[in-house]
Design goal:
The protein is α/β, with parallel strands linked by helices. The protein is built from seven helices and five strands. Strand 3 (68-72), helix 4 (78-86) and strand 4 (91-94) form a beta-alpha-beta unit. The longest helix has 15 residues, at 3-17. It is globular.
Amino acid sequence: MDKFMQAAIDEAKKGLVAGGIPIGSVLVRNGEIIARGHNQRVQQGDPMAHAEIDCLKQAGRIGSYKDTVLYSTLMPCFLCGGAAVQFKIPKVVVGESVTFQGSEEFMKSQGIEVINLNNQECIDLMINFIQNNPTLWNEDIGE
């Protein structure tokens, strides 16, 4: 298991335990995690509090993002993929896109390298959540 994806999974589980949607993210620079985040839409009552956005907010002002890698347990939506494009993050590593296809093609079209690990733990985490919380999930993805 990639240690950075494991850290993102740990963030996703932290969000789930807090009553939220189990999506986690970490931002890596020079082989070190510089920020962590998880989806907090439910906890904060904030429709913009996606995992990747939370992670980037936790990173704060770091100057250039051109030497970072963004990890996410789930393929980023267009909001989060757009943030990666805006900040010129060159690489996004994703746990899975089975449960949500997100913005993979958009990010790639903007020059971002997208690596999908098809991680079974990430897939199972989301399948279980979606089955048990379909209304909350549909709200999260704008359905």
